[in-house]
Design goal:
CATH architecture of the largest domain: 3-Layer(aba) Sandwich
CATH superfamily of the largest domain: Type I PLP-dependent aspartate aminotransferase-like (Major domain)
Structural class: alpha/beta
Number of helices: 16
Bound molecules: pyridoxal-5'-phosphate
């Protein structure tokens, strides 16, 4: 067991390959000045915008020159300029890196998590532009439902009569919430005792605690391609070796999963059985049974990140994956059904593992906020009502987004998501989502390219467009994307 602060962290250095950097640099020649000046300016802008985060290792001058079709001296001069101004640093024998000097955005992690990092309330500093000019379709995080305000309104000091006289640090979670989560699973068809639940500050923390506890640096974890970016970051931060298995309209490819598990013997396989982020898939019942059999036969541990469960749109909720047998640990969250701002999630496991993980949780933050837990316990008792609310609003938002795409971008191939608030869209062959997303960003619409969700930095033929913001904003964003596409800024990889 270790923590992210004590272990050596090979994942802090992000390497960007020449093909991806070339895509990000698309249009760099539009800058004024000589070739090396233009290239330096384009690289500086990528650093400023956070697309090349501090610590990123760049391709060598020779490799980048050949990828861009330039002389090595030109690239060398551009790198020299950026070194002289502190944007890049070179270390003999290790390569050239984006400097960690303070003004360069984020010193750790990946800018692709930026859609979470950006505050919906602004930076707190003076406004610098037109608030309505940019449209952000990156985040699929949903606004709180009215029920959250209702339950907050009902809280009084009397609700804390038992907890206030204590110190209030409860690493396992408040009994009332552990019971409410256990009842939530039992109602979904998975018998659960409160002792099998560890309350966490969001499913994201549950993932981190599990990763820190179970994975030694270099340990293999199987993940779906694509998968949730937040999981890739956490797993990389503990030094996991990630192996991808394809995941499509019906969730993970079962045959590929079985073959990969038998070859790699991973510490665990991270799956998203119920409302996959980003594809929106729900694993069908036959596939749930097959995953359970695989786990039972091979001893494979499955971590089922089912955090988005309550954002289901189509059909009844299938019983949780863990109810089919095998060794399945389940992550859940109050974020999708109720509100991400509660910062309450949980993990369901056997009691012994819960006790072990509670020690790590205690060491991380001593326990989740008591008021947040109290209100979440009440909300969970109304989970079915919350799901009906989400279903009604998300299905309308989904139809609108799909209709606009069908009308204005008929060559795009979106999945129809069974849940969630984003569209996973296959672009026509030969188009780069990274290049298109870059162009869209410059035109004021932010979307995420497929490699964001890939542990191998592939899936560049895919784009994720979220529809979590108000419908008029989604519609304007999609209209702008269509205009851009038809104006030729379509990310086509022309010779
Ligand atoms: C699949 C998945 N897992 C985990 C999370 C994080 O959830 P929480 O807000 O509970 O930390 C998200 C949020 O977007 C998610 O989509």
């Amino acid at each position: 067991m270790g923590t992210s602060s004590t272990r050596s962290n090979p994942a802090q250095v992000v390497y960007i390959g020449a093909p991806r950097l070339t895509r990000l640099l698309d249009g760099w020649g539009d800058q004024p000045g000589g070739l090396s000046t233009r290239l330096a300016e384009a690289l500086r802008q990528l650093v400023r915008s956070g697309q090349l985060p501090a610590g990123t290792r760049l391709p060598s001058e020779r490799v980048l020159a050949s990828a861009l079709g330039l002389g090595r001296t030109t690239v060398g001069q551009a790198f020299d300029t950026l070194r002289a101004t502190g944007v890049l640093i070179s270390r003999t024998g290790s390569g050239t890196f984006v400097s960690t000097a303070a003004f360069h955005a984020p010193a750790r992690g990946d800018d692709r998590l930026r859609s979470f990092v950006t505050s919906p309330f602004g930076s707190g500093g003076p406004s610098t532009g037109h608030p309505t000019a940019r449209i952000d379709l990156r985040s699929a995080a949903l606004p709180g439902i009215p029920m959250v305000a209702e339950e907050l309104d009902r809280l009084t000091a009397a609700d804390f009569i038992e907890t206030l006289p204590s110190h209030g640090y409860v690493p396992r979670g408040l009994p009332v919430l552990r019971t409410a989560v256990a009842n939530y699973y039992t109602a979904l068809g998975l018998r659960t005792e409160p002792g099998q639940i560890l309350v966490t500050s969001g499913a994201q923390q549950a993932m981190r605690i599990l990763a820190e506890t179970l994975i030694e640096p270099g340990g293999t974890v199987v993940v779906e391609e694509p998968t949730f970016r937040g999981a890739i970051e956490v797993l990389r931060s503990v030094g996991a070796h990630l192996v991808g298995v394809p995941s499509g309209r019906d969730g993970v490819d079962i045959d590929a999963l079985a073959a990969t598990v038998r070859t790699h013997r991973p510490v665990f396989a991270l799956l998203q059985s119920t409302v996959h982020n980003p594809t929106g898939s729900v694993l069908p019942e036959w596939a749930r049974a097959a995953v359970a059999r695989l786990s039972a036969e091979t001893g494979l541990t499955i971590v089922d990140d089912a955090a988005p469960t309550d954002a289901i749109i189509d059909g009844p909720l299938p019983p949780p994956l863990a109810s089919y047998g095998g060794r399945v640990l389940t992550l859940g969250s109050a974020s999708k059904g109720f509100w991400g701002g509660l910062r309450v999630g949980w993990l369901r496991a056997d009691r012994r593992l819960v006790e072990r993980l509670a020690v790590v949780k205690g060491a991380e933050d001593l326990g989740t906020s008591i008021p947040a837990q109290v209100v979440t316990a009440r909300l969970l008792n109304r989970a079915a009502e919350a799901r009906a609310h989400r279903r009604a609003t998300l299905s309308v938002a989904r139809e609108l987004a799909l209709q606009i795409l069908a009308d204005e971008l008929p060559t795009w191939r979106p999945y129809t998501p069974a849940g969630g608030a984003s569209l996973w869209i296959g672009l026509p062959k030969g188009h780069s989502a990274t290049t298109f997303a870059e162009r869209a960003g410059r035109a004021g619409v932010d979307v995420l390219a497929g490699p964001t969700f890939s542990c191998q930095d592939v899936l560049d033929g895919w784009l994720r467009v979220a529809f979590a913001v108000p419908q008029d904003v989604v519609a304007s964003g999609l209209h702008r994307l269509a205009e851009l596409w038809h104006a030729g800024h379509d990310g086509a990889q022309r010779p």
